Amino acid sequence: MEAITIKDIAKALNLSTSTVSRALRNSYEINPETKRLVMEYAEKMNYRPNPIALSLKDSKSKSIGVIIPEIANHFFSQLINGIESIAYNLGYHVVIFQSHDSYEREVANTNYLVSRKVDGLLISLASLTTNLFHFQDLMEKGLPIVFLDRVPKEIETHKVVADNFDGSYRATVHLIESGRRRIAHVTSPIYLSITTERLAGYKKALEDFDIPFDESLVKYCIYGGKVVEENEAAMEELLNLPEPPDAFFTASDRLTTGCMAVLQKRHIKIPEEIAIVGFTNISVAELLNPPLTAVVQPAMEMGQQAVELLIRLIEHPQKTGDYEIRSLQTSLILRDSSVGSKVNIKVS
């Protein structure tokens, strides 16, 4: 069976080849109904752009570089699924690197992708990244970059994030309304955007319920949950306070599961003695013991929107200037780890 071409689609839909071409590139110049018709017909007929021909035509590689902290993190794997689902249909290949939360690896990965002449970059910052020169320099030279999830304030470009403040606020309110008053917050490095946003939501919830903010109940894990010893040390400090927490609100997959592991190791009953809510997209949250109450981010949708914005920058460089910050709503899913009777047993 011969591969279908843009000309074939145009003839079938009674459209010009230029209209079909722009619709397949998700151009803002084409109305949504026409885009829908073209995309549905292309999918039905298994149309796939020829990346070599496209590259020869416009001197682009038709590839996008993606740098994330860790693929094993379920949130980031969902993010990649979203990125690839859009990029593939628009004729772009995706090259994925992991920074493992290392600044040096992030810089090395960036340099390699640029040397391979990718058309643009999608970045979620490493937890140890505080110097943004490698990105600022590339943007000044005209390379399109879009940030998602962990985003820098200092760089002006498109950004796609979850509404971390609202997710954190609602999680903390839920714990308060469940009768908790000493709510510990275990989180990532303070200079990450997700950390400051989630901390702000946590503080606002305490303020709205007239609960004083206690700095001793907040622990910042520099490696964001990847180093077991760091997680355990933070937990031990909190549990050994004169007045230990009666709840934990954790800010990532690894911090959440690490927290649960320490509580279970110390035979602390969840949620009777200590309740727990975590920011996590792990698919087995409901299979944990007890099932975990979670703030879930729309990871796949974040990836889809981020790559759409990046391809817009790549294909319409003259349209830059009106940058967007898209903030997507999170979901709070209530399960047994925070819903249950509280008993006043001192943690020793």
TrEMBL record:
One of its GO terms (molecular function) is DNA-binding transcription factor activity. This is LacI family transcriptional regulator. The keyword DNA-binding applies. Keywords: DNA-binding, Transcription, Transcription regulation. It comes from Dyadobacter luticola. It holds the Pfam family LacI. Residues 4-58 form the HTH lacI-type domain.
